[in-house]
Amino acid sequence: MTTASPADHGRTDRVADYTERFAAFLDAEVAPLEEELAAADVGTAFNPRLDEAGRMHGAVWEARREVQRRSARAGLYNPHVGAAVGGGGFTRAEMQHVEEFVYRRAGLGLGLAALAWTEGANPAIEHCSERARKEWLEPLMAGEITAAFANTEMAVGTDVLAMETTARRDGDDWILDGSKAWITNAHFADVVQVVAVTDPGAGTRSLSMFLVDATSPGFTRGRDIPTMLNDGLTGELHLDGVRVPADNVVGEVGDGFALAMAWINWRRLCRGGMCAGWGTWLLERALDRAQQRTSGGRPIGELQSVQHMLADMDADVYAARAASLQAQVELDALPGGAFGMPLHPDAPRLTSLVKVINDEAFFRVADRAVQVHGGTGLRLGSPEEKLFRLARNLKIPAGTVEIQRNAIARGLLRRGTGR
């Protein structure tokens, strides 16, 4: 009798089928598009040229969009979306293996666009109305349009309940006013998941989520907000009397906080596979560098100092990957899973563990990868330099590492007191 190892949790037959088809898709569909993009000399998917407004070059954006459309047609774009709305219905443990494979194999290439990221469907939008499903969710899943999640405001970071964007009822519609900032895909989104105050002072029931058509009167895209990622995707959004039909309320009025947390927790949990995939890719590149680069006539991999850096990279990837997989298996076993409404009391701690462990381990991995590559690793646009900046960035979006520690401690204290 054989017993499955913890690393096999979630490595199901459909994961094996998905990764096999994804690898073939990269070769047959993505590689030619990457060649075309390289010939256009407009940058790459993760190091794009920017236009005069500081936004991602249109040709790079369109190459990403083409990958998304082709991926959707190939049945690869939405494994994380619930089966009830037409997605793959993969568990979080299954998605850990899928995301790890995608990030390791695609590296920093166009292939990453083949798995829906923040511009695609997500656990929150699955709660939309039947009419909104036809108008917005199905086109999102088909790769025909893209979305943005508009929660953050310029003066309001982690304190979601302090947001100032409001929505007031007007007959069968809602009128939205306010501004959002630090929004990924602000410049290109066709539909925006806007979180706004509908019942001031009602605590976690004070917020609601709306699907806002980006062509609506009163909806405008603000300035680009350059970040250390330098990808031309982050910016401001403004809503001035934007009229939204009642059918575009996601879930029920008052569900906004829970839905926003479902979206945020989804991004936190994606850290497990993403950091394991990219971390392994960086380690493989570092191993190759250590064996090929010579100093004093010998490969630098023979130097103990380099060996220790490689060992530390391996330890961080291994430990973070194992912790993430264990946490996601536990989340899958909870009533309601990782994104239940209401959320199981054990879920916030487990989700925060995944984020903080990966944020910090991956930063160390990326830092050592740069060091092993030396001057080559410092070159702007190199995978090591890009992922080092991205690793530092990860410690802030979707809740800072400090906020994750607060959530972990609250979970421990609640469990300790039995409440």
Automatic annotation (TrEMBL):
Residues 148-242 form the Acyl-CoA oxidase/dehydrogenase middle domain. InterPro entries: Acyl-CoA_dehydrogenase, Acyl-CoA_Oxase/DH_mid-dom, Acyl-CoA_Oxase/DH_mid-dom_sf, AcylCo_DH-like_C, AcylCo_DH/oxidase_C, AcylCoA_DH/ox_N, AcylCoA_DH/ox_N_sf, AcylCoA_DH/oxidase_NM_dom_sf. Residues 254-413 form the Acyl-CoA dehydrogenase/oxidase C-terminal domain. Residues 62-144 form the Acyl-CoA dehydrogenase/oxidase N-terminal domain. Pfam families: Acyl-CoA_dh_1, Acyl-CoA_dh_M, Acyl-CoA_dh_N. The keyword Oxidoreductase applies. Its cofactor is FAD. Gene3D superfamilies: Acyl-CoA dehydrogenase/oxidase, N-terminal domain (1.10.540.10), Butyryl-CoA Dehydrogenase, subunit A, domain 2 (2.40.110.10), Butyryl-CoA Dehydrogenase, subunit A, domain 3 (1.20.140.10). Keywords: FAD, Flavoprotein, Oxidoreductase. The keyword Oxidoreductase applies. CDD domains: ACAD. Belongs to the acyl-CoA dehydrogenase family. This is Acyl-CoA dehydrogenase. It comes from Actinomycetospora aeridis.
